[in-house]
Amino acid sequence: MATAEKTPRFTHPAARGTCPFAPPAAYEQARQEEPISRVSLWDGSTSWLATRHEDIKAVLSDARFSSDSARPGFPFVSAGARQLNTGRPTIIRMDDPEHSHYRRMLTGEFMVKNVEALRPQIQRIADDLLDRMTDGRSEADLVHDFALPLPSLVICLLLGVPYQDHEFFQDCSRVLLRRASTAEEVSAAQAQLVDYLVRLTESKRTRPDDGILSRLVERGELSTEEIGGMGRLLLVAGHETTANMTALSVLALLRNPDQLAHLREHPEAVPGAVEELLRYLTIVHSGLTRVATEDVDLAGERIRAGEGVICMVNTANRDEREFPGGDELDLTRDARRHLAFGFGPHQCLGQPLARLELQIALATILRRLPGLRLAAPFEEIRFRGEMLVYGVHGLPVAW
Questions:
Q1: What pLDDT does 184 receive?
Q2: Is 105 left (phi over 0), alpha (psi -120 to 50) or beta?
Q3: What local confidence, expressed as pLDDT, does residue 2 receive?
């Protein structure tokens, strides 16, 4: 069992390769040659990098690897990420029993049967957006006109947040998720967003509605500030991830016309196709971060207490041992073992909602825009490599 300090072979983040859908080549190399390796981070600190499917599942399901960002040695992927995780922790930065206690307050909101009941409303939103997008036009930016407003409208509906404030919270989200944001910029954006949600939550005490914020107020277990912090997490995660996954999925299908044709011929295959797209694209390209609370042996390496681990779920989802031919998009593949939503007790709480939104978005686009195509050269598409959530800044399409 290796125990000596190793010189980092890689950096985080690594330079991207020629294929914008693929993980950095350095991390693919790490998965094949040294699946548990050392990396140097932006501030000169080091961390372990896990790149293999089975090892990442082991880390994410092991209570000896903590999600608590206040623990010494926790790996931060940028200055902004460190600032984002200071102060009052959200549930994704808690360990049990606190994590389970707070998560239980939200579990019912995102149960599959409750989310499925939203299908008619989400379908109406998708159809309305496409009505507006196609009215008198033959070209549009799919991000601006469809992929971003769809999940934003849905999460606002669920939380009880006025959609007319979407430009404000989307601007805050961009600052919070941009790698180059300074600690000061993140602190300011975070304070503005939480203050907005605290004031909104306080208003629910006298003017309740059917949203999650109101129901949390009615439970009486959390302070207004705690509800505001929880709302911030749900609001940002609830629109950024699905928006980017929707646009990137459409682009991947347009770049793989045989797969797009298969899906047009077999619209019933959309749910399985969404799983394969989640695996193939895996928009969390910065990794899931943990810190060891005691010495742990993993894949031939000894990870010492206080050492960080970054789990690169995007390389795990290309792991040939788990997904043969994993670098190819294959919509007939059974991809349900992917780690795009994480694994273990902290796996994404909102994944039933994300799946439903993606299924409706793709099925509606396929049905209503049979001639969909790119309206700009692929080489001109701007990818979000500078963001913690991957995607495209815009997607010009025509039909």
A1: 94
A2: alpha
A3: 52
CA distance 34 to 116: 42
pTM above 0.90, yes or no: yes
* 27-42 as b/e: b if 16+ CB within 10 A: bbbbbeebbbbbbebe
pLDDT along the chain (399 residues), means of 10: 70 90 93 94 96 98 97 94 83 95 93 96 98 96 98 97 96 93 94 96 94 95 93 93 97 98 97 98 95 97 98 97 97 97 96 98 97 97 93 97
Nearest to residue 60, comparing CAs of 298, 232, 391, 256? 298
How far is the C-alpha of 347 from the C-alpha of 110, rounded, in Å?
13
pLDDT attached to residue 85: 84
* Strand ranges of the sheet holding 139-141, from the earlier edge strand across to the other edge: 139-141, 396-398, 373-374
Find tokens 């909102």 and name the residue: 350
Intra-chain end-to-end CA distance of the chain, in Å: 58
Q: Which two tokens stand for residue 291?
A: 């810190």
The pLDDT assigned to 53 comes to 98
> Comparing C-alpha atoms, which of 246, 241, 277 is closest to residue 259?
277
**Element (DSSP H or E) covering residue 326:** none
3-state secondary structure of 383: strand
State the greatest distance between any 2 C-alpha atoms of the chain, in Å, as a whole number: 66
Phi, psi of 334 (to 5 degrees): -85, 100
Read off the tokens for 91: 């549930």
Look at residue 222 and give its three-state secondary structure. coil
Quickly name the fold that domain 10-398 has.
Cytochrome p450 (1.10.630)
> Which residue shows structure tokens 């970054």?
310
Helical segments of the chain, H only? 25-33, 53-60, 79-84, 98-107, 112-116, 119-134, 142, 149-159, 166-177, 183-204, 212-219, 224-255, 257-265, 270-281, 313-316, 351-368
Q: Nearest to residue 323, comparing CAs of 60, 270, 136, 332?
A: 332
| Nearest by Cα to 210 from 148, 118, 127, 146 | 118
DSSP label at 148? T
Alpha-carbon span 173 to 341, nearest angstrom: 20
